[in-house]
């Protein structure tokens, strides 16, 4: 039941993204934007945003656009991450990366256009009070900027040749993945008029979820099944390299349990957001032949 | 008198930019952002914004931050424009371009951070009504996005090998230069609560000013004195190549006269914005040994 609940939501998100960026055959930049946005993607961030706001009692149409804005920023960050001067990746979601398909210049322009469109979408979100929209723009600006994704990307690239501590790697993970989840949940809280305590719990949830998500990514690096270049992180210090797979699996389970506790404090023991999170990691696990649940005792995937 | 009036304003803008982006010696991304933002630059856009809003009766502190936001977007567009996969420029304002000095990855990250910071600055501008801030974010998003600077940059790169008409080149010029001037003036109008007629005149002024500005750029390409690579536009179709220098000089004068008419309609015959514009083009002319005024009859530089 839960699966179909979320697949309907994903379809709504896909349809809205498609609508926001209509096909213009003569414009390679919008084609590249569409390709990156519409070719797959689990829509994790828009789903989190919408399910959280709904859980808090808001189910208004602008949620869909806010989710699409966050997805556009995420897509832009993938294009950036894959560029020759960054990770120089050739595959993403099983397809050629944007610069491989369209050229580096168009990849870069589509990245800039996606970012800029995201801010515009938030500022134009209808039905929200303008003072809420401006706070959302502020949140996204911080998430992207030199203390957010940009800093994470820099650390990820430039610290990779050095010996790094577990804390350093965790900080980079938070900046590369956590801050956008944090902004996503902050937008949901703002849209639903969450009080300070709830907003702070959602922030803790986002950070725990982000750490779990990044560890999953580290665990599956080197596996062809994830549709990216195999061993993309080769040369970078990941927590898997520092701690070993088993320890990372346990930590991932710990982050999920922490995320669960914060969710329960906000929504009670059973929430659609909780079902979404567990469904997501169960699917990851299934896709990777039980990689995450090899020590079932440490991994609470059976809960839902 | 006029010169010192504007040099004080430029100092205020420089000081605020410096304050907004404090030096962090251990962070190459913010160093690159600062370098691009603070190393020269005529501050044309912030000056236009502030002088326009003042002329319309608003002289509040957030104007400075709005001006800095527009300047950040302009700086980001210069970094982008210079990248190896774009113009592959080595010099800008007489110094190595950002990617030459810091590497391509840091140039790109600083470009993204500047863009994103600009949106944040506008959303946080204190003393403005939130509904004004959201409209400003919308304006800037459109100016940057796939129908604005991004499209201009694409056309500039990809149409360069073809034979292009005067109209095509003018459209590219508008997208590359005019749309950000247009957004700059729109922000000024919004900050000052301009009515529709005034806003529309300011838009016409911005477009005429932008065309004049771009023609100046075309005329001075190939001259080492402008601090950029000599013949950066080599291989691109410019209006100078299509029409010849003399015709371009006349057109430039025509655009300035048009800009003047719109200014006069809003502010009367003598305005600080008018003095600024004429002072700017006179300075250009002086710096280039009278390049613009070789046919004084066609060029109204003597007015102020």
Automatic annotation (TrEMBL), chains A, B:
Kindly report, in one word, the top-level EC class recorded for this enzyme: transferase
| Required cofactor names | Mg(2+)
Which residues span the membrane?
none
Write out the GO MF terms: transferase activity
Q: Which Pfam families match?
A: polyprenyl_synt
Q: Mind listing the UniProt keywords for this protein, alphabetically?
A: Isoprene biosynthesis, Magnesium, Metal-binding, Transferase
- Keyword Transferase recorded: yes
InterPro entries, sorted: Isoprenoid_synthase_dom_sf, Polyprenyl_synt, Polyprenyl_synt_CS
**UniProt KW Transferase keyword:** yes
Write down the EC number: 2.5.1.-
PROSITE patterns, from UniProt? POLYPRENYL_SYNTHASE_1 (PS00723), POLYPRENYL_SYNTHASE_2 (PS00444)
Please report which protein family the annotation says this sequence is part of: Belongs to the FPP/GGPP synthase family.
The protein's name in its UniProt record: Polyprenyl synthetase family protein
| Annotated source species | Modicisalibacter luteus
